[in-house]
Specification:
With 225 residues, the protein is of the alpha+beta class. The chain is 22% helix and 29% strand. The chain has helices spanning 11-23, 54-59, 62-74, 101-108, 207-216; strands at 3-6, 28-31, 49-53, 77-82, 88-92, 127-131, 140-147, 151-155, 165-170, 179-187, 197-204.
């Protein structure tokens, strides 16, 4: 059981928080740039909860604030503030966590630590080619509207049947090997107010493609490429 600690790079502040948690037997992994959360070693660690320094949060970038909101949806979250006298104020974010540090730790001890996995789809726009031919001889040009670790949604007025196999070329990837996908669901043109297209599941994707997608999953990359 351990915690991800979001705090500025101020060594004294990080040291104080680390001391408090480790004295109770809970290791912490400090991070001050949340773009790195999608890279090793942070994405490989398992966390029982998130500890966020209030001042660092107030001063954080828009990108980091967005990631913090996503983390709060996944993990028990504790806000902390280091006072001038060295004391720390504790403010659990979710009501179920109680009102103090002990309540937060008790709750976190009941849940299984887990990695921050990119399973929930996030808004990511990437230009793609899509075809039912492995060589992409005949293809449509389109773009993703969201992305997860296991698939994506591709906007398109042309849709294929559920469970049909398709080949996806994400043009910004260094490895342009067509990704074998399966249509999990589709939405036809004209169903307002929704964008037509298909939800695709990745069936065969190279390791290098997966790693690059994980890196660009950061909100800093959420734009058309």
């Amino acid at each position: 059981m351990g915690f991800l600690l979001y705090c500025s790079s101020d060594e004294a502040t990080v040291s104080r928080y680390t001391e408090i948690f480790e004295s109770r037997g809970y290791p912490v992994t400090p991070i001050h740039d949340l773009n790195k959360l999608f890279q090793s070693p942070y994405r490989d660690h398992e966390y029982s909860g998130i500890v966020i320094d209030v001042i660092s949060r107030m001063k954080s970038s828009y990108v980091d604030k967005t990631i913090l909101r996503n983390l709060e949806e996944v993990y028990p979250t504790l806000l902390v503030k280091l006072c001038a006298d060295g004391q720390v104020n504790y403010m659990p974010v979710q009501a179920r966590l109680g009102a103090d540090l002990d309540s937060f730790l008790r709750y976190c001890s009941t849940i299984k630590p887990r990695r921050y996995r990119i399973q929930d789809r996030r808004e990511v726009y990437l230009s793609v080619r899509l075809s039912d031919h492995a060589g992409l001889e005949k293809h449509i040009l389109s773009f993703t509207m969201d992305l997860s670790e296991g698939g994506c949604f591709v906007a398109s007025s042309q849709v294929w049947e559920k469970k049909q196999k398709l080949y996806l070329d994400i043009i910004c990837l260094k490895d342009r090997t067509p990704i074998l996908c399966e249509v999990r669901w589709s939405r036809s043109w004209g169903i307002n107010p929704f964008v037509p297209g298909m939800g695709l599941k990745f069936l065969r994707i190279t390791k290098s493609q997966q790693e690059q997608l994980l890196e660009m999953f950061s909100p800093a990359m959420r734009k058309a490429i």
